[in-house]
Inverse folding.
C-alpha cells in the first residue's frame, strides 16, 4: 500500500464523523451541538505523521477531541468537560485548532525580532501528551522550540543525566 | 480472489447479526434502530476493478428508512461490519434516477446499458454508466460531478482529493489473504452462535431487537462497568472524582497526587504537593525521576498524616484496577514518561472472542486544563506503575 498519510485528512474526518454519529461522545450537550473541526496531523518528533487530532467544538469552545492513529483506528475520545452538561473550564477552540493563534501564543516566549517557523502538532514524551511545537532560530543559527498546549506555553529545559522522568 | 463470495441471504443475515450486536452493546442508539428490519441485501457497491466491495443495506422501520449498514463482501476488509449510518436514507432507485437525469444534462443523447454503484475513492461513491462493458460516464453521488478518468500516478504518488483509485488494488495481496482468513473465522463464529439452519426461539437476525438477541448471546455476554461513586450504591449516589490539570509541563505526578488527595478531602495546592515530591517550584519545575517513583507513596502518607496507607505496584494488572475501583478507591497510573489518575473501568466480553477493557482516565495533560479519557484501551497501553491508597483503619 502506498504510504500517503498527509492525504488521509479527508478519511480521518470521515472516520471521526462516523465515530461521532455512533455516539462516542457521551455528553448530550455535545451530541446535540458539537461539530467536528478539520483533522490536524500529529507529527512524531522526527517528522512523520503519528496520528490525527480532530477537535469537537461547541460554539467557540473545544469540548474534546477524537484521536486516531495513523491507520485511522480510534486511540481515544478525550473530553475537556468536567461534567457532561457543562462546558465550564473547556479551552477555547482556537487555542488547539488555529495555528495562527498558536503562533501568537508562542511568540510570547520567543525573543523579539526572532523568526518562528510554522507551528505543527506533536507530542511531549508520550502520545497522550499532545502539544503544538513552534521552532525558532536564534541569531547564531541555533534552532529552539516553544511548545503550546492550549493556552499553556512552555519550553523544555535540558535534563540532567540520562534517567527517565515522569512529567 | 478478493471477492469473498458471500451469498445475498448471508449478507442480510450478517447485517442483522452485526447490527443486533452493536445495539445490544449500546454502541449505536437503540431508539433509532430498535424494531428496524434488514429487508433486502441492498445495493452492491463495486470497486473500480469491477469486484463487489460491499453491500449497503437500508434499515427500514415501518415505512421509513432510518439508516443503512455497510457489510463487506471483499477481502479489502477484515470484518463484515464496515459501518452504519443513522438518519441518512439510502434509496438506490431515487439515486439512480437522479444520476440518469444529471447524466442527460451533461451528455446529449445519453444512452447506457448498465449502471452500477462504485466506490471510486473509498468511501466516496459514484454511479458508473456502462455500455458494452465500457464506461460512458461516472458521476459522484449527490454532487453529480463527473469523476475524472484514471490518471497515471508515480509509484509513490498519492491520489488527489477528487480522483478515482481502487481500494482492492491498493490493498497488498498479503493483507487480502490475512483479511479473508479473519473474515471467514468471524462468519464461522456467528454460525456457531446462531446456526443458519436452526432458528433459535424468538430470534430472527434480520429484525433488530436487542432484547431477543440477548436470548442467543446470554449467558455468553458479560458487561462490567463502574466509576467511583460516593458509595457502593451507584443508583443513589453520584460519581465523585474531579480533574486537575498539571500547572507546569512536568508536574503530572503532583497533579495526579492532588486528584487522589482531593478525593479523600485533603485539599492541598499543587505547588505544596510538588514541593513535597521534590519537583521544584512553579518558576523552576522538574519531573519525578524514575528512581524516585516511591516518593509518591511517601507523600500520599505524609500529607494525610498516614490516614492513607499507600503502596506502589511495579507490575500493574487489570485485576488490580478493577478491585480498587470496586472498592471506591482511585489509583495513580504511571505510563512511560507520564502519570494520570484512574477512576473507572469498563469491560465488555461477548462470547469467547470479543473483549474490550477500558479505563476512565483523568489525565492532567494538557497543562492547566487536563482531559478525561473514556475509555483508554487497557490492552493497548504499557503501564509502568500503579499507586493505590486506602484509608488506614485502627
Amino acid at each position: 500500500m502506498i504510504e500517503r498519510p498527509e492525504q488521509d485528512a479527508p478519511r480521518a474526518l470521515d472516520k471521526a464523523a462516523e465515530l461521532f454519529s455512533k455516539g462516542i461522545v457521551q455528553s448530550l450537550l455535545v451530541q446535540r451541538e458539537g461539530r467536528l473541526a478539520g483533522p490536524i496531523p500529529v507529527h512524531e518528533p522526527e517528522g512523520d505523521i503519528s496520528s490525527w487530532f480532530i477537535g469537537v467544538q461547541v460554539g467557540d469552545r473545544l469540548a474534546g477531541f477524537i484521536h486516531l492513529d495513523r491507520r485511522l483506528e480510534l486511540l481515544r475520545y478525550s473530553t475537556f468537560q468536567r461534567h457532561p452538561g457543562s462546558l465550564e473550564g473547556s479551552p477555547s477552540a482556537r487555542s488547539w485548532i488555529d495555528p495562527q493563534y498558536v503562533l501568537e501564543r508562542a511568540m510570547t516566549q520567543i525573543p523579539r525580532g526572532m523568526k518562528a517557523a510554522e507551528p505543527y502538532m506533536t507530542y511531549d514524551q508520550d502520545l497522550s501528551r499532545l502539544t503544538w511545537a513552534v521552532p525558532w532560530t536564534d541569531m547564531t543559527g541555533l534552532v529552539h522550540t516553544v511548545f503550546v498546549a492550549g493556552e499553556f506555553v512552555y519550553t523544555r529545559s535540558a535534563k540532567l543525566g540520562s534517567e527517565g522522568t515522569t512529567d | 480472489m478478493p471477492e469473498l463470495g458471500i451469498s445475498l441471504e448471508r449478507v442480510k443475515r450478517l447485517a442483522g447479526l452485526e447490527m443486533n450486536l452493536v445495539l445490544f452493546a449500546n454502541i449505536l442508539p437503540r431508539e433509532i434502530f430498535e424494531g428496524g428490519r434488514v429487508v433486502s441485501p441492498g445495493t452492491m457497491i463495486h470497486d473500480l476493478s469491477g469486484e463487489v466491495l460491499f453491500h449497503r443495506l437500508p434499515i427500514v422501520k415501518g415505512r421509513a428508512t432510518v439508516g443503512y449498514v455497510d457489510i463487506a463482501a471483499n477481502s479489502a476488509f477484515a470484518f463484515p461490519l464496515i459501518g452504519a449510518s443513522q438518519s441518512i436514507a439510502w434509496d438506490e432507485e431515487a439515486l439512480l434516477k437522479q444520476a440518469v437525469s444529471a447524466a442527460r444534462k451533461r451528455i446529449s443523447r445519453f444512452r447506457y446499458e448498465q449502471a452500477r454503484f462504485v466506490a471510486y475513492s473509498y468511501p466516496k461513491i459514484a454511479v458508473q454508466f456502462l455500455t458494452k462493458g465500457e464506461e460512458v460516464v461516472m458521476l459522484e453521488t449527490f454532487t453529480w460531478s463527473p469523476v475524472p478518468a484514471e490518471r497515471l500516478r508515480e509509484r509513490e504518488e498519492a491520489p488527489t482529493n477528487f480522483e478515482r483509485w481502487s481500494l482492492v488494488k491498493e490493498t497488498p495481496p498479503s493483507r487480502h489473504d490475512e483479511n479473508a482468513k479473519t473474515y471467514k473465522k468471524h462468519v464461522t463464529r456467528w454460525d456457531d452462535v446462531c446456526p443458519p439452519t436452526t432458528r433459535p426461539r424468538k430470534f430472527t437476525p434480520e429484525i433488530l431487537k436487542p432484547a431477543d438477541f440477548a436470548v442467543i448471546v446470554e449467558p455468553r455476554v458479560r458487561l462490567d462497568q463502574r466509576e467511583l461513586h460516593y458509595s457502593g450504591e451507584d443508583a443513589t449516589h453520584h460519581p465523585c472524582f474531579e480533574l486537575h490539570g498539571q500547572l507546569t509541563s512536568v508536574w503530572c505526578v503532583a497533579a495526579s497526587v492532588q486528584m487522589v488527595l482531593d478525593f479523600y478531602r485533603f485539599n492541598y495546592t499543587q505547588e505544596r504537593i510538588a514541593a513535597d515530591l521534590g519537583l521544584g517550584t512553579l518558576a523552576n519545575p522538574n519531573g519525578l525521576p524514575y528512581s524516585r517513583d516511591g516518593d509518591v507513596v511517601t507523600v500520599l502518607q505524609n500529607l494525610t498524616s498516614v490516614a492513607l496507607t499507600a503502596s506502589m505496584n511495579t507490575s500493574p494488572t487489570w485485576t488490580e484496577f478493577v478491585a480498587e475501583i470496586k472498592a471506591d478507591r482511585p489509583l495513580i497510573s504511571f505510563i512511560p514518561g507520564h502519570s494520570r489518575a484512574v477512576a473507572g473501568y469498563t469491560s465488555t466480553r461477548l462470547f469467547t472472542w470479543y473483549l474490550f477493557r477500558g479505563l476512565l482516565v483523568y489525565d492532567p495533560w494538557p497543562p492547566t486544563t487536563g482531559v478525561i479519557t473514556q475509555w483508554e484501551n487497557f490492552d493497548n497501553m504499557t503501564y509502568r506503575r500503579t499507586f493505590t491508597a486506602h484509608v488506614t483503619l485502627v
